[in-house]
Design brief:
alpha/beta; three-stranded antiparallel β-sheet; 8 strands; 54% helix; binds zinc ion; 3 domains; Nucleotidyltransferase, domain 5
Length: 390
């Protein structure tokens, strides 16, 4: 139940004695939620999920009929999102059905939500400042976008200082819980964006599909499928967690085919990857089957390989080596680094501090050498002053 437990937390300035928010009104609220959750759409979800044993009154274990994902406590709201967004093996008509249900609820459930919001607001004596449902939804979306795009931890939404900030800006807004923000609201936004992208792609042709995979810090293998339009718009169409699979050319070709088929085989003009042996095979399998699709090797990857070859040259190798020594010196000496910063200010050098060369970040080699060149003027002075101080 916690995901809907978004009652307002009184701010520091609220006189707590003036609030008539009692335990009984809260339990009434909880009961209302219980009743609501037994609605038709939540019953329907169990047609696609195997119900396991009862873990607590009204809560059951569950297993997805299609992908066999298991939940120790299968919450209907989570199951619905799973079928709409996450399940990779769920039949398309079922996915569409649940997407439509969520969208419908998003557009039409204002009445239910309104009564809930109103009852809470009334109890909390916020009548004068209450906001309407569309405004609340607008803030929900803005809040979610800020959290996602600024890479903020969802738990911040429950931080008392953050709540105080939001309440100062808009006292009538009921701040979502971390769970609600990271499940219900996030999934709804994902569906909205996916539908938008699908609509855009419907009206496009000569698309390019770019694929790349990477390993996350916790060792999961993710593959992204990016679709580019002729007007150079890029859409992240899908991210798949393929950790459990062996990444053979054949397997990747099948995954690529799924994406191509779901958008429309005639819409694609090219497929592009780096030069890994498995993706090269996958690319070939696709273009052999569909000769109209160009087999393209990523030019950025080629440039990276060429630049690596350049770096093997004695002069380049030496330059990088000395640049690294310089950067490392200033990183390790806070005193000299402070001096360098002061000199940068004195000479009004723009473009930032010394940059470190990181092997996996292609651009960092140019940034590192450029930063050394940019600060050349300061180095002599640092060494003289440093010499005098010592
Ligand atoms: Zn599933």
């Amino acid at each position: 139940m916690s995901e809907n437990n978004n009652f307002s937390i009184p701010s520091e300035n609220d006189d707590i004695t003036s609030l008539s928010y009692t335990e009984s009104s809260y339990s009434n609220e909880k009961n209302q939620k219980k009743r609501k959750k037994g609605g038709k759409q939540f019953t329907e979800v169990w047609q696609h999920i195997k119900r396991g044993k009862e873990v607590s009154p009204g809560s059951y274990e569950g297993t997805c009929n299609y992908c066999n994902e298991v939940w120790s406590v299968a919450k209907p709201i989570k199951l619905r999102s799973h079928l709409a967004v996450e399940c990779t093996k769920c039949p398309e008509e079922i996915t569409t059905k649940f997407i439509n249900l969520i969208i419908k609820e998003d557009n039409g459930s204002c009445k239910n939500k309104k009564s809930k919001v109103e009852s809470l607001q009334t109890t909390l004596h916020f009548e004068k400042t209450k906001i309407n449902e569309s405004k609340s939804k607008e803030i929900d979306n803005a809040l979610l976008k800020a959290f996602v795009c600024c890479n903020l931890a969802f738990s911040i939404v429950e931080n008392p200082f953050f709540i105080e900030l939001i309440k100062t800006l808009c006292i009538g807004y009921n701040i979502p819980t971390r769970r609600k923000l990271s499940t219900e609201l996030l999934e709804r936004e994902v569906i909205r964006i996916n539908l938008k992208v699908e609509n855009i792609l419907k009206g496009s042709s000569n698309l390019t599909l770019a694929i790349d995979g990477w390993t996350s810090p916790i060792g999961r293998s993710y593959w992204n499928f990016v679709i580019l339009t002729p007007t150079r718009q890029e859409y992240l169409y899908k991210i798949s967690d393929l950790t459990e699979e062996k990444h053979t050319g054949q397997f990747l070709a099948e995954e690529i085919l799924k994406v191509i088929n779901s958008v429309g085989i005639n819409k694609f003009a090219a497929i592009i990857t780096d030069n890994g042996s498995n993706v090269t095979v996958a690319r070939k399998l696709i273009t052999d089957q569909f000769p109209k699709i160009f087999n393209v090797r990523c030019i950025a990857h080629c440039v990276n390989l060429i630049s690596h070859d350049f770096l093997k040259h004695g002069f380049a190798e030496k330059t990088i080596k000395y640049c690294n020594i310089l950067v490392k010196f200033f990183k390790n000496s806070h005193k000299c680094n402070d001096l360098l910063e002061k000199l940068m200010k004195k000479y009004q050098i723009v473009g930032g501090k010394l940059k470190t060369y990181v092997k996996t970040r292609w651009i960092s080699i140019a940034e590192c050498v450029n930063s050394v060149l940019r600060l050349k003027k300061c180095f002599n002075e640092v060494s003289i002053i440093n010499y005098l101080i010592i």
